[in-house]
Write a structure and sequence with these properties.
By secondary structure, the protein is an alpha/beta fold. It has helices at 2-13, 30-44, 63-66, 92-95, 121-133, 155-158, 190-196, 200-210, 222-229, 243-259, 268-288, 307-315, 317-326, 329-340, 367-390, and strands at 23-29, 53-58, 76-81, 103-109, 138-142, 163-168, 180-186, 302-306, 345-346, 356-360. Bound molecules: pyridoxal-5'-phosphate. Residues 15-368 form the Aminotransferase class I/classII large domain.
Length: 392
């Protein structure tokens, strides 16, 4: 199954780079467990210490902002920001911040949640350059939305030595309940090498930590430490996914391997999945008369709607200011939910600015997205009527 999953990941996301035979895998209970295990083992192995700086591409999936702040970790977050005015494209200038060796790690979601944008060629080149200047940088790259953009190129395939790949089947196969995730690490990787550079005292402590489960703890690979740590060392022998989960990962992987030839473009399931979210994205934006990002680097899995910008486009700047100055951004969300049962997610939790609302294109029948767009505009109209009354 390791071989099947490795070739699946390669077909899906390495774009012409062959890494399947040099990648070690640790299948996890979804991407969720992969993230939790990664933070835990990085800290236990002294690779991330309290006060260390980690870079994060924001806006981002909320756990990447919350976990580093916990008492267990207390990491300092450096924001690599992208903006709606650039269609959420991250600028190489932001990525250059990684050249600073005081930044120990990069936590990156690509294509990201909530903006749905993929790192383009310029961004990947900037990562390659930054890693040359900061060769000990540890990258944790969460690529659960990779298949939703054509010709996706994984950060792991660009800088395999520096990158821990996090993958999940949840999004592409709509199988969140199965809990099917993977951590992938190159056989030669910065995590192992950074462990070999720890102080003698730290090494002695880790020797003791892992000595009950392996004969030569000093040589224990980081991927095996992740696995042992996931069961508090003591239960290392029963760590890992259940047999049905492992078989499910292999079956999903094989559906792709059986149909695809060149980089996944011939997989009809993937084509349909992409078309589905794109149709819903189009319906939503058409109904709101909002501009679309139709580039190939948009996965269309989520939309971020800037409610203030929409207000300004519809009714002018004064109304925008009225809305921003008189209401909390959650008021709009609550009203929308009360009125129509439409529940959107506030973007502030993802590090987006107030007034950005996230819509998932994965949840509802396609026609509902036109309805959501219409209801957002109707609610804005009601606010506007209120505004007109008040300004008389
Ligand atoms: C959904 C999601 C995950 C985790 O999904 P699982 O269901 O636990 O596999 C991880 N990262 C990102 C960015 C996600 O959006």
């Amino acid at each position: 199954m390791r071989k099947i999953i490795n070739y699946y990941l390669q077909e899906l996301s390495y774009e012409g780079t062959n890494l399947a035979d040099e990648t070690d895998l640790f299948p996890t209970e979804g991407g969720t467990a992969a993230i939790v295990y990664a933070f835990h083992s990085l800290a236990e192995n002294h690779l991330l210490k309290k006060g260390d700086k980690i870079a994060i591409n924001e806006p981002i999936f909320t756990p990447y902002l919350r976990i580093p702040e916990l008492k267990d970790y207390q990491l300092v977050e450096v924001d690599l920001h992208s903006y709606e005015k650039n269609n959420w494209e991250i600028e190489p200038k932001e990525i250059e911040k990684l050249s600073d060796p005081s930044i120990k790690a990069l936590m990156v979601v690509n294509p990201t949640n909530p903006t749905s944008k993929e790192f383009d060629k310029n961004a990947l080149d900037a990562i390659r350059k930054a890693v040359k200047k900061n060769p000990d940088l540890m990258i944790i790259s969460d690529e659960v939305y990779g298949a939703f953009v054509p010709h996706f190129k994984s950060i792991y395939s660009v800088v395999p030595y520096n990158t821990m790949l996090v993958y999940s089947y949840s999004k592409l196969y709509g199988c969140t309940g199965w809990r099917l995730g993977i951590i992938g690490l190159n056989k030669k990787n910065v995590f192992d090498d950074n462990i070999s550079k720890l102080t003698e005292a730290e090494k002695a402590q880790l020797h003791k930590r892992y000595s009950s489960v392996v004969l030569d703890p000093d040589k224990m690979k980081f991927i095996d430490r992740l696995c042992a740590d996931s069961r508090s060392i003591g239960l290392y022998h029963t760590a890992g996914l259940s047999t049905p989960q492992q078989i499910m990962e292999a079956l999903f992987s094989m559906t792709h391997l059986l149909t695809s030839t060149n980089g996944g473009s011939d997989d009809p399931y993937i084509d349909i999945a992409r078309k589905l979210v794109t149709d819903r994205y189009d319906q939503l934006h058409d109904a709101m008369k909002a501009p679309k990002d139709e580039t190939d680097t948009n996965s269309h899995y989520y939309s971020l709607i800037d409610i203030y910008r929409l207000a300004e486009n519809q009714y002018g700047k004064d109304f925008r200011n009225y809305l921003a100055n008189n209401f909390q951004q959650v008021d709009f969300l609550l009203k929308l939910a009360e009125k129509n049962g439409v529940v959107l997610v506030d973007g502030v939790g993802f590090g987006a600015k107030p007034g950005e609302l996230r819509v998932s294109q994965a949840n509802l029948p396609t026609n509902d997205y036109a309805l959501i767009g219409k209801q957002v505009l109707e609610l804005l109209k009601e606010y506007h009527e209120e505004y007109e009354k008040e300004s008389k």
